[in-house]
Amino acid sequence: MKKIILDVDTGIDDALAISYAVHSPALEVLGITTTFGNITVEEATRNTVQILELLGYSQIPVYAGAKRPLFRELKEKAKLFHGENGLGNIELPPPQTPVQKQEASAFMIEQARRHPGKLTIVTVGSMTNLAKAIRDEPEMTALVERVVVMGGAVTVPGNRTPVAEANICADPEAAELVFQSGIPVTMVGLDVTMQTLLTREHLALWREKGTDVSRLFADMCEFYMNAYAQVGNVRGCGLHDPLAVGVVIDPTFVTAVPMHVSVDTSGGLSDARTIGDRRKHPAAAANVDVCLEVDHERFVEHFLQNVF
Ligand code: BDR
Ligand code: CA
């Protein structure tokens, strides 16, 4: 079993990723840490606890993290895609389980020290918590086995701006700090996540299944899908965050290419763009394994069979 910490800004696809991770026999979820992005960190924390309670996994500890980016102002919430409350405006019962007192980045450091070389951190929101952990404990780069990042885009357009993906946009300096830190990184960006789509046919199957969980997820994902349709993606919505979890469960879902990646933090037109050096003779050594291809049929099938 792989030991993981999942760092989320729960979010509809984050909720799917949580469900997929906690149900996987290949993973041991040591804890879930929260950050801002789709919504505020307070909302992400509440949603995470609510989702774990809905799934019957409230024993998994939740650690609240960063309230804002390292150096910038907090950006607007992603209301179009995730609704006012982050879960497509679907109301879940008020959370009962207390959140841990320890701060998210401190938990990451503690677990990395406890499981040297054996901890995978999966970030599916802003990368602020991990950046803080590396800043506070430079040994993180040697202690952590791998970081799997849902974020960025090297070969395809962005989704928050023409060139930048939402999780990198949320805190570009944090992403750049992590990428340049020397920690082993796998980047699961829009290059692959926009090929793994959840469709209306899948939602119909969840409704047919008829459990509380399958119905609530179908309702949330319908909201997400309608937002995708509004911006021209009529075939379905991207399984962004679940694919990052999928890559830990089975790395053969994707083909990753080592390359040098840096994040534009200039504040200009290309701000938050992830620039991969794809030249034959790159100027700098590879620092990120960038997923460029995905066996989308096999992944989506595995996700559907195992998500709840
Ligand atoms: C990413 O941004 C967020 O809206 C999603 O939850 C996902 O993590 C996709 O760009
Ligand atoms: Ca997310």
Automatic annotation (TrEMBL):
Domain Inosine/uridine-preferring nucleoside hydrolase positions: 4-301
GO cellular component assignments: cytosol
Keyword Hydrolase: yes
Pfam families in UniProt: IU_nuc_hydro
One Gene Ontology term from the biological process aspect of the record: purine nucleoside catabolic process
Keywords annotated in UniProt: Glycosidase, Hydrolase
GO molecular function: purine nucleosidase activity
Protein name: Nucleosidase
Source species of the chain: Brevibacillus borstelensis AK1
